[in-house]
Amino acid sequence: MENNSAMRNDRPTVMVTNDDGIDAPGLRALVRVLVSSNRFNVLVCAPDSEKSAVSHCITWRNALIAKPVEISGAIAFAVSGTPADCTALGISNALFPSIPDLVISGINMGSNCGYHILVLRLKRGNVNLHSVTVAGAREAFFNDVPAVSLSYDWVGGKSNVDDFVLAAEACLPIFSAVLAEVKKKTYPQNCFLNIDVPTNVANHKGYRLTKQGKSRVKMGWRQVTSDAQGGKMLSTMTMETNSSPHSEAEALSTKHGHLMFKREVAGSHVDDGDTDYSYLQEGYITVSPLGALSHAEMDSQAYFKQWLPSVTECFSSSAL
């Protein structure tokens, strides 16, 4: 904690977390941009390794280890927990000398739009389960700390690590505007922001207020005879065809009557219209306010409003 002297009272404090780990290029680029702007005190509390596909999991039984990490201009810790753990610890006043004014989760390598904000997300043309980037921001929101989740629509063959810097720079005005509203106590407390930056960030079309759409990837299952069959599904949900030799336990699993299954992409549904995914593909930086609750569509509400009393009536009649 020797770096506490770097904290300045005349600057707002921003804490950065992510799901790809503290050494991920997206996080490092974001921190560099925040530090070099000379506008913020910067804290980092991020997983010590990649934690993709853990959704909003938290660690309950075991103690977390927080290891100081040297990142120029920031106070940083690598934590042996999930992104939700990192956010919760970082805003608790137990690790850092003060509670941050804003939590930024990212920059994620891959967009977070539609249903895959909660369930699935596309990553470099492949599939990544559970938007943990959004979970890092959501955990702050649950604890009344303003938060932003930030993702870059990485496309293999087109994108490079310098695009993370451009994405962070493009979003600096949003971060500053949020903090200005927080200082005036006019920032809404019933939501947090999910921001997606387009692939061609250097030529983005500006900011676009959007809503969460229904784009999603459908997953299926395929029975296999060994874990090596069809390649190994990595934590990024990409396929590694040159898998390393497997253990004897894996090789013997089917001999003992066990069944083995692997996930596979079964299809996808892409939104059209006034949604986050559509505007992202058009080249806009999409800004979508999100909340904790996911309400059913209005027609579903209307259906069940009539349906539920009929269930009670049927049960009462049968009981007689």
Automatic annotation (TrEMBL):
Note the superkingdom of the native organism.
Eukaryota
Pfam families the record matches:
SurE
Answer yes or no on keyword Magnesium: no
Assigned keywords, A-Z: Hydrolase, Metal-binding
Q: Which GO terms describe its molecular function?
A: metal ion binding; nucleotidase activity
Q: Does the keyword Zinc-finger apply?
A: no
Record's GO cellular component terms: cytosol
Into which family does the record put it?
A: Belongs to the SurE nucleotidase family.
The protein's name in its UniProt record: 5'-nucleotidase SurE
The record lists the organism as Sesamum angolense
What taxonomic classification does the UniProt entry list for its organism? Eukaryota, Viridiplantae, Streptophyta, Embryophyta, Tracheophyta
